[in-house]
């Protein structure tokens, strides 16, 4: 890899560190190509990506970034899983680590906060952006359906009372 290629990689990594909601660092030593492709596919499904890069280039790219302290966990055969959604990459990484013992989460970063493996697990347990939006919409819609039910209830109650009175009169 010549100097121009290295500069390009450092620039790309810098963009990843600056624009990602979460970056997860993991060891992948011993994983097969098929396993790595499977991880990449799962990450793509949630809008994330996986990147393998030299640690020295990643450390250079981290200089001056809010997550610069993450450089301490970049050692050995590491890969980066990242996504704009603050929890998507962490969720996929955590789920994949449970099924593949060769994929070991070392930590990561969420904004300027450096995460240890337990921190990544905590982030993975949080609801995703889509889940939060669905919960908010549900909360907003619930009062409207309650009001509609309350308005409709007296009419249905009156109708059932009238039906009961009519049945008693007929008998």
Describe the 3D structure.
The protein is 58% helix and 16% strand. By secondary structure, the chain is an alpha+beta fold. It folds into two domains: 3-126, 2-Layer Sandwich (Alpha-Beta Plaits); 127-171. The model has no long low-confidence stretch (mean pLDDT 85).
Brief summary:
By secondary structure, the chain is α+β, with helices and mostly antiparallel strands.
Task: List the keywords.
single chain, 171 residues, alpha+beta, Alpha-Beta Plaits, 5-stranded antiparallel beta sheet, 6 helices, elongated
Count up the domains: 2
CATH homology superfamily name of the largest domain: Ribosomal protein L10, N-terminal RNA-binding domain
| Oligomeric state of the chains present here | single chain
Q: CATH topology of the largest domain, what is it called?
A: Alpha-Beta Plaits
**End-to-end C-alpha gap:** 96 Å
Average the pLDDT over all residues and give the rounded result: 85
The CATH architecture category of the largest domain equals 2-Layer Sandwich
Shape: elongated
- Count of strand segments: 5
Order of helices and strands: HEHEHEHEEHH
Helix content: 55-70%
The largest sheet has its strands arranged as 2-3-1-4-5
Give the uncertain stretches in residue-range form.
none
CATH first level of the largest domain: which class? Alpha Beta
Please compute the radius of gyration using only Cα atoms.
26 Å
Main β-sheet description = 5 strands, antiparallel
